[in-house]
Design a protein that fits this description.
Shape: globular
Bound molecules: S-adenosyl-L-homocysteine
Largest sheet: 8 strands, parallel, barrel
Strand content: 5-15%
Distance between the termini: 35 Å
Strand order of the largest sheet: 1-2-3-4-5-7-8-9
Oligomer: single chain
């Protein structure tokens, strides 16, 4: 099959997409990346948007089998930043020209937590209003499964984007990853509630999970399309030694390369099928390859999330092993990200929220 044919929607069948995901011929990969890049340029332009990633707490009530900050991991030292610390990070991001921040944490649903997040969002919005950002910095939340009322409240506080990965759309695999958590349907309902509240909605999956097939991954892409998702953040699964899944994981020498390639092909295919969404080149890609994120940009991604979490707590927010930039300061991550984007010939768009064009098309 010719990569060009994929541009024709009628050719985007499960069989054709699986064929592309499984094709490891270097020439084919090059063509796939070029095709994804041309789709990106046509629908979104070549600009790259930055979101400062603030991991503000690793306290979590969930027990996801793959995740290093799961409730049962007694080896994780728990922390929560104060409101002032979080707001300072966001103010710093605004001064750097990042138009947006992402507030990410472990999951809690108690009233105290929700109230705290709402007050943090309000304070960030108030403190970052400027000539270039008349409505303050853009705030994306990533704080897990909440009720519609909570989503509404956080939206009213000023957050306008929300990331909630579906992790996998295969219900059985989902249950194996989260045996004690609510089922896949609950997450789908959350994504729909987020959309109804008015958020730009982001989701994504982990790639190369044990037991996950190519068909599963292609079904994930079609799910993003059918649910009219605005933003995608996905990356390879990386084991964490103190989780049940990490302990049971059987590594092999070709794993990193295979997972990276699959991750890049997923980005390219998602770009080709969804066209006008924002797609992040995630940190997990960099955990597998020092240039993983740059390669993500070359396969159709247009968002990067430099880590701005204070270095003192970074090591406590380890979802997986080998998290990069553990000892860097935020300023180093900012500079490094900017250089990395320039190296691959792309330009950073500063001082704008960088919303997903898809959101405006669907609303
Ligand atoms: N509690 C929040 C966010 C925290 S985790 C939420 O549920 O949305 C953010 C993402 O990290 C998860 O959605 C998951 O896809 C990813 N993640 C967790 N553990 C991982 C691992 N071992 N390897 C790769 N990605 C992982």
């Amino acid at each position: 099959m010719d990569v060009d044919e994929l541009l024709d929607e009628s050719k985007q069948s499960v069989d054709n997409l699986v064929y592309c995901l499984e094709n490891d011929d270097p020439e084919f990969l090059k063509l796939l990346a070029e095709t994804a890049s041309s789709v990106l340029e046509e629908h979104c332009g070549k600009g790259v948007y930055l979101r400062g990633l603030i991991e503000f707490s690793n306290v979590c009530v969930r027990d996801c089998l793959y995740c290093g900050i799961r409730r049962s991991n007694s080896e994780a030292t728990r922390f929560s930043l104060t409101k002032e610390e979080i707001v300072d990070c966001a103010v710093w991001c605004a001064a750097q020209g990042f138009g947006s921040v992402v507030l990410q944490s472990g999951e809690r649903t108690d009233e105290k937590f929700v109230d705290f997040v709402a007050r943090v969002v309000e304070a960030i919005k108030a403190r970052t209003v400027s000539d270039v950002l008349p409505q303050g910095i853009g705030v994306t939340l990533c704080v897990g499964e909440q009720s519609r009322e909570v989503y509404q409240r956080l939206f009213e506080a000023g957050a306008h984007r929300y990331l909630l990965r579906i992790e996998t759309t295969n219900p059985e695999l989902y249950r194996n990853l989260h045996p004690e958590e609510p089922p896949l349907n609950n997450r789908i309902d959350c994504l729909r509630a987020l959309k109804e509240v008015g958020y730009q909605v982001g989701t994504g999956v982990m790639i190369d999970l044990p037991g996950q097939t190519s068909e599963d991954l292609i079904a994930d892409i079609l799910f993003f399309r059918d649910e009219d998702i605005d933003m995608i953040g996905m990356g390879p699964y990386i084991p964490h030694y103190s989780t049940p899944m990490g302990k049971a994981f059987r590594d092999d020498s070709s794993r990193a390369e295979r997972a990276l390639k699959k991750g890049l092909k997923m980005i390219a295919l998602t770009r080709i099928v969804l066209r006008d969404v924002n797609i992040a080149a995630t940190t997990a890609l960099q955990a597998l390859d020092p240039f993983g994120r740059e390669k993500g940009l070359q396969c159709g991604a247009n968002v990067m999330m430099p880590l701005v979490t204070p270095p003192s707590v970074r090591k406590n927010y380890q979802l997986y092993e080998g998290k990069p930039c553990l000892d860097d300061a935020a300023s180093q991550c900012s500079l490094c990200t900017k250089k990395r984007i320039e190296i691959v010939g792309r330009n950073i768009v500063e001082n704008v929220w960088g919303d997903s064009p898809h959101y405006f098309r669907r609303t």
